[in-house]
Amino acid sequence: MHHFRTLFLNLLFLMGTIGVFANVGGVTPRPGLIGDPIVWQLTNISVAKEELFLRFFERDGQKMCAFTALYYLQSDTNQTIPVSGIFYGLRTAQTQVFFNDVPAISAVDSSNFKKIDSLIISAVRRDDPDAFWYDWRRLQKQAFSFVFQPGQNNVLKVTGEITLLPTHIWYYAAGAPVYTKHPFLNKELSKGDEIFHYLITPIETWKTVGTIEVHVEYPNHWKPNLGLNAANITQTTAKNQQITQILVFNDSFPPVFTIRFEKKQKHLFVGGGTLGVRGLGKGAFGTRVGWEFGWHHGSFMNTLLAVDYETDYRNYHQFCVTAMPSSPWFGFWPGVGAGIGVPVRLVNQQLYVGTRLRLDLSWGLFNLNFNWDFFPKLGIEGQYTRYWGGSF
């Protein structure tokens, strides 16, 4: 049963490393996942070397990975040993298991694995409800069995394909200002990097482990980030518009081998419109109509560029361009934007250029704007206006 505990802890560790932030907007990773095979009731078989070949490509607009994992097995006894184990994957397809080139697939023992599945699901639901998303219930299991014969070149091979999906950014009660204020025209912001995970720690259920050698091949215009994997040896080659990287782990292994294929960053977003009104019933009625463009630095900081037309319908017409670094909206706590602008006011057919200080509070589509305008040539040393409004 200690092998079941090992698997349980390994999967909980993996979920913890990619979990979302509770109660705030954040990234929901949707990784492609495979892992080393788990075995039980074994004492004498070791993995002398593992070779993992990962070939990434694109099919029908989706990133895919064709994988082949080779495990070179050895034993410190001369006994013939029956071996049973299981291979886990997420969004895997066409998974095949071979031992010495002979198919080694067997039926899953549902009595064992229903129990561990229920443990995993209940623990994740209890400890981090936001991390309990549907994909984890779709972990695919492929059982295998074979007979280890001493004196042979015993090789276990697993092959298949994985579909990688972009991460998804939540914006329900918190998120980047360019989205929360203008959600209808900025959908692209909700897709991020594609993530690939290879779970290494299950290999510890074998007696000992030697070298792990990972071969990663991908198109040369992709942008992988392998910075989290501290390999002992690395090697990179380029051929036929493909990049191949070899990472060798000798002394220590990362619990999870991770590759993030970074999405090409988009910074300027179309934003959306704004409407505002002031002075209702006070004799100082005015309106504002404008558009805000978004400069996206990250999920929790944007710079909004506001282009507004304002008038009181009696004394002036005014255009203003304002740049405002802005924070996200968190539930009852509003998003806050503060910046400086350049207003141009038309008074009696004369144009006057001034300076504006602006503070914005926003709760999604509802906004409150505070403005202080300075027009020295008009003798205005700080005209204060406040607009209540909305955005789309």
Give a concise summary:
This protein has helices at residues 2-18, 110-127, 177-180, and strands at 27-28, 32-35, 38-39, 45-59, 62-75, 81-90, 92-99, 102-103, 140-148, 155-163, 166-169, 191-199, 209-219, 224-225, 233-239, 242-249, 256-261, 268-278, 286-298, 301-311, 317-326, 335-347, 350-353, 355-363, 366-375, 380-391. It is mainly β. The strands form 3 sheets. Strands 1, 2, 3, 6, 9, 11, 12, 14 and 17 form a 9-stranded mixed sheet that branches. Strands 8-7-10-5-4-13-16-15 form an 8-stranded mixed sheet, with no helix packed on it. The protein has an 8-stranded antiparallel barrel with strand order 18-19-20-21-22-24-25-26.
Descriptive key words:
mainly beta, Immunoglobulin-like, nine-stranded mixed sheet, elongated, 392 residues, eight-stranded mixed sheet, disordered N terminus, 3 helices, 2 domains, Porin, 26 strands, 55% strand
Please specify the SSE layout and strand pairing.
Layout: H1 2-18, E1 27-28, E2 32-35, E3 38-39, E4 45-59, E5 62-75, E6 81-90, E7 92-99, E8 102-103, H2 110-127, E9 140-148, E10 155-163, E11 166-169, H3 177-180, E12 191-199, E13 209-219, E14 224-225, E15 233-239, E16 242-249, E17 256-261, E18 268-278, E19 286-298, E20 301-311, E21 317-326, E22 335-347, E23 350-353, E24 355-363, E25 366-375, E26 380-391
Parallel strand pairs: 2-12, 4-13
Antiparallel strand pairs: 1-11, 2-6, 3-6, 4-5, 5-10, 6-9, 7-8, 7-10, 11-12, 12-17, 13-16, 14-17, 15-16, 18-19, 18-26, 19-20, 20-21, 21-22, 22-23, 22-24, 24-25, 25-26
Helix pairs in contact: 1-2
